[in-house]
Amino acid sequence: ENIFDRSRMAPKTPIKNEPIDLSKQKGCTPERNPITPVKIIDRPQPDPWTPTANLKMLVSAASPDMRDREKKKELFRPIENSEQSDTPDSLQYDIVDDTTVDEFEKQRPSRKQKSLGLLCQKFLARYPNYPLSTEKTTISLDEVASVLGVERRRIYDIVNVLESLHLVSRVAKNQYCWHGRHNLSQTLKMLQEAGELQYGELMTFQHKEQDLEYKFGERKKETIPHSQDRSLLDFSEPDCSSASANSRKDKSLRIMSQKFVMLFLVSKTKIVTLDIAAKILIEETQDTVDHSKFKTKVRRLYDIANVLTSLGLIKKVHVTEERGRKPAFKWIGPVEFSRKTDELRGDKPTSDSLPERGACAQYQICAAGKQRFTRHASFNGAQPCEGPRRKVSSEPNSPHQERQDEYCSKMINLAAVCGQKIEEDTRNSSVTSPFSLLPVPGDSDFCVNPLPQAVFPVVPAEVPSLSLPIGISSQAPHPSMPAASKTENGKATLVPNQPFLCFPSSSLFMLCGGLQENNLSETLPTAGDKGNRSAEAQAVVPPAVCQKRSSHKCTSPSSPADDEEPAAKKLTVEQSDLPLSLVVPKEPSESPKAESTPGNGCPSAVHLETYRLDLASPAAPEAASKESLDCQEQEKQSQNADPDEPPPGNEHISKENANQPFQPQYLYVQPTAGLSSFNFLFSASQAPGAISLAANQLPSLSVPCVMVPSAALASFPLVCSPSFTSPLSPVPDGSFSAAASMNFSMSSLASTTPVFISTTAMVTPKVSPAPSVDLQQPAHPALHLSPVLTRSCSAVKLDSPVCVGHPVTLLKLQQPSSTPLTPKSIRPAHHEAFFKTPGSLGDPVAWKKNEGNQTRNASSVQRRLEISGTSPD
DNA sequence: CACTCCCGCCAATTA
DNA sequence: TAATTGGCGGGAGTG
Length: 873
Known about the structure:
This protein is of the alpha+beta class. It is built from 40 helices and 15 strands. The structure holds a DNA duplex.
């Protein structure tokens, strides 16, 4: 392509041709360039005349308009062509320019060519979506600005939004570190959680109230009264005392961006209209909002929306209301993860859990002030690149909150609910999905490091297929992304010589063999309920199988049935795919089985589907699921699928257990998008029942499990295995019951850092041959868990790292010699702070907030659940 | 004309 | 104090 371009370009800009750029870029960006669109990027490289930005600057100075325009055009062209339908025009345009004199060029590049969205795409094209952990990609603002031919100011617009999603972090002046999408799902989860806290109630309302106006008026009032909510929100408002300091921050594009994203994540329809968003984001009450302010907000939202669109997270649509057609954006990014969390947490969040989380989230998001988070460092903490942060000038923001938001969100929801027609915007529709697929087998990031001694049977080959890079990647099969599909089709990518499978960080899998002991007891009635939520696919495998897997791909017939059964299994699988994340409404009584059946009308199923739709590439999930299926899973699924056996999930499970000797079993949850951020590991021994076969159901948490951030998993092999059985399990809601012991590994750990978690005991990384077995779980899992956790399942939400941290069970190996991470990269402190439970945080404020909200939250949650259950959309 | 949103002034923050 | 960031809103491009 480069050549091509040059040939094309050469005539135009002789000067520009310099190879150097290429080298530069390479240096900057790791090899992996994303997708085709990236190519576009490549062009820019060639374009850049000078290796040094300065030079460029000079040149541009010399012949400002012309040069810039040319550059821009060139840069843009590729993108436009690929993305936009206008192509024809643009092409002509380009051609003309090329051939003709500069004069033509002067016809300024259409405004579109200068759009922030386009610029952002160019920007993104320069960096891999999933950079290797080893490579640190630093972004020099000056350089990027010069290369892209724009003023720095514009780069800030992009970077700020990216930073809000933790795709980049500020390392130093003029320097940002590119993280890529590795943490995106986690970030989104967090945002979702935070969003739920802030806006969750609204959702409920919307459901109830159909009348928009009603909301505006009365609802607003009602909501306001909840003073407690306020506390949750850290966003300081201008009025606050600290206003001066905070004011800027408050309005910051970053925060706006996060809030904006939250709205999407909270919204059932995933559609948010600009005006509503603007209203919500405006601090003042809606009524007071003056027009100018509103206008300004909208402008900003466009800026943010452009970037998000470039990221492939949203797309433009129009909603038709009574009043007319309004511009809106629809979330097309991963959704499930969020759902999962909910589910996991259980509907019934204990009062504690929710608040806590909320608090944590809040901190991150909002508060810059308090902790060192100034720049959202909290999120970044784990990342290698992290560097100096700006000082936080002021204190904690005043507790403030925007009631408005709530009601705005309500409104939004209502609107959505009310039935608006949504039209995709033609403009954006063409946008290609930004995600690059990089599930490269070889990629270090995705590969699990082999332990010196393969302790565990590693994930079977089957598994590998499962893991895809974050939800998106999983979708590879999607037609749009042929390349991906190919790779993925292959089942597991094993790294040569390595016992472990490579998988994208997001993917989940797992397993360890555990002992079986009480398993049966574990199957609880709850399982059924929970089952719904619970992981879709779980399988119990005989030990033999495990071994096989470990060493070899699943192809081997470890389990008789496993290998074959494709069709039926697939179907089941698909459903199962849905990650826990999906909001599966917990339905109280429903047995999972129904869900398990494909096509069932179960609400959960519906949701799942919906999500899929939302996903950029709908097809992907299925494929992913297929791939992902393990033999075990397949078996299970097959069983589930079997019409013959519709036994309730619990029974089902138990049955299996009975049939098969308990031995080390593996359970893995598919890494669907929802799950992407977290991985669950269940010991086989654990209550199988808990993990209902039913695909969509969430497993009951009663089972001891370990949740690990996907990132963590990716980097190293996990060992876990709480073999103990938990007695409790009867948590009706399926939330993780107290019984379940859960350990979270912190994402904070650098991906590279190996983490081992065992419910019972610690395992040294290298050593654990059979950690699970060896370690005995204390009788009561609760011990390990923080009180909070024990109390409320909800607290345990998968996603929230918050919960993590309980020292006892968790082992963090901070710096394994093996990992190259720089000391900086590892920042336990941050993480801890970030994730800590409120109690651990010790932040009084947060704590208070939590408490205050607890009751409320719980109620809201339930409401939500109900709603979700009933309305599949 | 309504939407979008580019552009760049200039203030807040940092270094 | 100089430089970096980034809020903000005028007003232009687009349909």
